[in-house]
């Protein structure tokens, strides 16, 4: 495996086209000037020949050399002997199909969260990775934010004493039209549970990885959920309503309580769909960690504050603000994850971490659906 101290890691990127998450976030993060010595984009793969050629031409100009163009099955890019690592950024329901050929080819893998449409998908990918002995990186980039690094430092110092409880409140406002009650056309798939891209899957999965990375694993959960917004209005690419309304049976409110392995009691309330921004007075994110000797609090009223994996919150220790040299945006945060992998650090998430979070999400869903406490059993 190449590293930043030798030749650059040669990357083939699946899903890196003209638009979408890969084009606006994960691709630009990889292509940061500070990572040029660590990574080299050598190939792209998209769904069609035309888009693959267009993408290869565009990114070839960015990296300063020709980029190979593949399309269709990922087995093509996975079999390229010039590639060390394949990065995959496609919709969740295609993760398993796209990632398995890469793992079977023995290539290292970067895969966006949620690493499959369900726990079974994620476990299948993890088993393949173990069998082939490859390295994996999952796009749970929240582990990279500097606020969390500081929180872990404070906790390790013992400044707030033994942790007794933690309380979290989050709001995914309608200003971010990925879920109800307003949804852009390209995100209508998030309202079909089997696609694995609902609120519970993506944003809650991101946060719960950040939470457990900081405070440790759950041993049990008691959850309830509600489907407050039973319909969603579809928005066009211009952000204006198209007039189409779709039904939504995906829960948009969650209340999760449980105990951590440390014995701390946790309460998380997540709601979605409310109006946010100026004039509402509504904070998007509050996370309190209470110890015997004090309290750590993180909070944000930014419209993306509910997504600390991409928008660093303010930090307070015993009511006093702690200054942190935060990463400025989501691209910088993702770039930090790429850097950690190249340097062989241990701060990035792997497919095994993804299995743990998927296991927790399934337990939450089971508890909320069946109305009883569920023990979280990690394989």
UniProtKB/TrEMBL annotation:
Domain Gfo/Idh/MocA-like oxidoreductase N-terminal residue range list: 9-137
Keyword Aminoacyl-tRNA synthetase carried by entry: no
Molecular function, one GO term: nucleotide binding
UniProt-listed InterPro entries: Gal80p-like_C (IPR055080), Gfo/Idh/MocA-like_OxRdtase_N (IPR000683), Gfo/Idh/MocA_oxidrdct_glycsds (IPR050463), NAD(P)-bd_dom_sf (IPR036291)
Domain Gal80p-like C-terminal: 148-300
Record keywords: Oxidoreductase
Pfam family name, one: Gal80p_C-like
Protein name, UniProt field: Oxidoreductase
Annotated organism of origin: Agrocybe pediades
């Amino acid at each position: 495996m190449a590293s930043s101290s030798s030749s650059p890691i040669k990357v083939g990127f699946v899903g890196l086209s003209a638009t979408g998450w890969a084009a606006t976030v994960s691709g630009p993060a990889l292509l940061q000037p500070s990572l040029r010595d660590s990574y080299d984009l050598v190939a792209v793969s998209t769904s069609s020949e035309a888009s693959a050629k267009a993408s290869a031409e565009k990114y070839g100009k960015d990296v300063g050399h020709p980029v190979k163009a593949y399309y269709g099955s990922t087995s093509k890019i996975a079999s390229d002997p010039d590639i060390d690592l394949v990065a995959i950024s496609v919709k969740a329901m295609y993760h398993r199909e796209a990632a398995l050929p890469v793992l079977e080819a023995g290539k290292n893998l970067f895969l966006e969260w949620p690493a499959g449409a369900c726990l079974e998908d994620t476990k299948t990918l993890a088993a393949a990775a173990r069998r082939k002995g490859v390295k994996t990186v999952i796009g749970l980039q929240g582990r990279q934010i500097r606020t969390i690094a500081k929180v872990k430092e404070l906790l390790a110092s013992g400044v707030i004493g033994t942790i007794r409880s933690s309380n979290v409140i989050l709001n995914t406002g309608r200003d971010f039209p990925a879920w109800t009650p307003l949804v852009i056309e390209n995100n209508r798939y998030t309202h079909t549970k089997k696609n694995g891209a609902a609120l519970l899957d993506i944003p809650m999965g991101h946060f719960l990885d950040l939470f457990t990375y900081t405070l440790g694993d759950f041993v049990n959960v008691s959850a309830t959920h509600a489907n407050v917004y039973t319909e969603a209005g579809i928005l066009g690419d211009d952000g204006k309503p198209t007039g189409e309304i779709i039904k939504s049976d995906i829960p948009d409110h969650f209340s999760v309580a449980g105990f951590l392995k440390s014995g701390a009691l946790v309460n998380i309330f997540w709601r979605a769909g409310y109006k946010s921004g100026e004039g509402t007075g509504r904070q998007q994110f509050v996370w309190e960690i209470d110890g015997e000797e004090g309290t750590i609090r993180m909070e944000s009223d930014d419209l993306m504050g509910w997504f600390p994996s991409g928008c660093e919150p303010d930090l307070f220790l015993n009511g006093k603000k702690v200054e942190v040299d935060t990463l400025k945006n989501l691209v910088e945060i993702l770039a930090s994850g790429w850097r950690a992998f190249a340097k062989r650090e241990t701060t990035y998430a792997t497919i095994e971490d993804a299995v743990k979070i998927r296991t927790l999400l399934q337990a939450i869903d089971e508890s909320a659906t069946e109305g009883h406490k569920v023990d979280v059993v990690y394989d």
